[in-house]
C-alpha cells in the first residue's frame, strides 16, 4: 500500500490571470471573451476588474477619474491600492476553491499610472507588497498613437495622448520576462486565439498545484 506524503498532495486551484495595457488596447473586450470561453468550456471562472467601483473606496476613485473630485497624487494612489487590498481575502478564497479569475488591470496599472505622474516606483509598489501575484500577466501591446486613433477616449482623467505615452514607458520599465506580450493591433480573433493558448497553459499549471506567490517579493 502506498501512502502519499502530505507534500505530494496536489492542491488544485484557480488561476489568477491579469490583463494590462493602455486605454483602448482592447483589454476589456478580450477579458469578456476569455471569460465566456472558459465558462462555456465548463471551467469555474469570474471576471474581475480594478478599480472595483462598487466599494466605498471604489466610488471615491470613480469620482476622481470622472474629474468630479480632486485628490493629491499620493492619496489617490493609496486609494487604488486599498481597493485591491480590500479584495485580497475574497480573491484568495475564490482561487483556493478552484475558481479562475480574469482580472482587467491590477497592481501594475497602479504603479504604471502613478509613476507616470512622477511618483517613485518603489514608493508606489510598497503598499501592495504581499498581495497575490498573478499566475500570468498578459500585456496587450499597442502604441499610444494607435490607441488614440481607435477613438472613443471617454473623457476620463487619464485618457489623453500625452499622458498615455508616459504610461506606456512606465509599463515598459515595469514589465519583466514573465509577461506575455500580445500584439494588440492584430485582429480581435487573433488576439483571442493567443490569449486562449496562454491562459489554457496557465490554468493547467494551477490545477496541477502551482504554488501562490506574492507581489514585489
Ligand atoms: N488606474 C487603474 C490607475 O491609475 N491605478 C490603478 O491602480 C488602476 C487599477 O484608472 F486610466 C487608472 C487606469 C485607467 C483608469 O481604469 C480607470 P478603467 O480600466 O478604464 O476602468
TrEMBL record:
UniProt feature coiled coil, ranges: 181-208
Q: Which family does it belong to?
A: Belongs to the thymidylate kinase family.
What region holds the Thymidylate kinase-like domain? 19-194
Metabolic or biological pathway, per its Swiss-Prot or TrEMBL entry: Pyrimidine metabolism; dTTP biosynthesis
The enzyme's first-digit EC class, named in words, is: transferase
A GO CC annotation recorded here is: cytosol
What residue stretch is flagged as signal peptide?
A: none
Q: Does the UniProt entry include the keyword Nucleotide-binding?
A: yes
What name is this protein filed under? Thymidylate kinase
Instruction: Establish whether keyword Cytoplasm is in the entry.
Output: no
Q: What is the lineage of its organism?
A: Eukaryota, Viridiplantae, Streptophyta, Embryophyta, Tracheophyta
Q: Which UniProt keywords apply?
A: ATP-binding, Coiled coil, Kinase, Nucleotide biosynthesis, Nucleotide-binding, Transferase
GO terms assigned for molecular function? ATP binding; dTMP kinase activity; nucleoside diphosphate kinase activity
For this chain's UniProt record, which GO biological process terms are given? dTDP biosynthetic process; dTTP biosynthetic process; dUDP biosynthetic process
- What's its EC? 2.7.4.9
Amino acid at each position: 500500500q502506498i501512502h502519499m506524503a502530505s507534500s505530494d498532495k496536489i492542491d488544485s486551484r484557480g488561476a489568477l490571470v491579469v490583463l494590462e495595457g493602455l486605454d483602448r488596447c482592447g483589454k476589456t473586450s478580450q477579458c469578456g471573451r476569455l471569460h465566456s470561453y472558459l465558462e462555456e468550456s465548463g471551467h469555474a471562472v469570474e471576471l474581475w476588474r480594478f478599480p472595483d467601483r462598487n466599494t466605498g473606496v471604489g466610488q471615491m476613485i470613480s469620482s476622481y477619474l470622472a474629474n468630479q473630485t480632486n485628490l493629491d497624487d499620493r492619496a489617490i494612489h493609496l486609494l487604488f491600492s486599498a481597493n485591491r487590498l480590500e479584495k485580497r481575502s475574497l480573491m484568495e478564497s475564490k482561487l483556493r476553491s478552484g475558481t479562475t479569475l480574469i482580472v482587467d488591470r491590477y497592481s501594475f496599472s497602479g504603479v504604471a499610472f502613478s509613476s507616470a505622474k512622477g511618483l517613485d516606483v518603489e514608493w508606489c509598489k510598497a503598499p501592495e507588497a504581499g498581495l497575490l501575484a498573478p499566475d500570468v500577466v498578459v500585456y496587450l501591446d499597442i502604441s499610444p498613437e494607435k490607441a488614440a486613433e481607435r477613438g472613443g477616449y471617454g473623457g476620463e482623467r487619464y485618457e489623453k495622448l500625452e499622458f498615455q505615452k508616459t504610461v506606456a514607458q512606465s509599463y515598459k520599465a515595469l514589465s519583466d520576462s514573465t509577461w506575455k506580450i500580445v500584439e494588440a493591433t492584430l485582429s480581435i480573433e487573433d488576439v483571442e486565439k493567443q490569449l486562449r493558448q496562454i491562459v489554457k497553459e496557465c490554468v493547467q499549471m494551477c490545477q496541477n498545484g502551482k504554488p501562490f506567490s506574492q507581489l514585489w517579493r
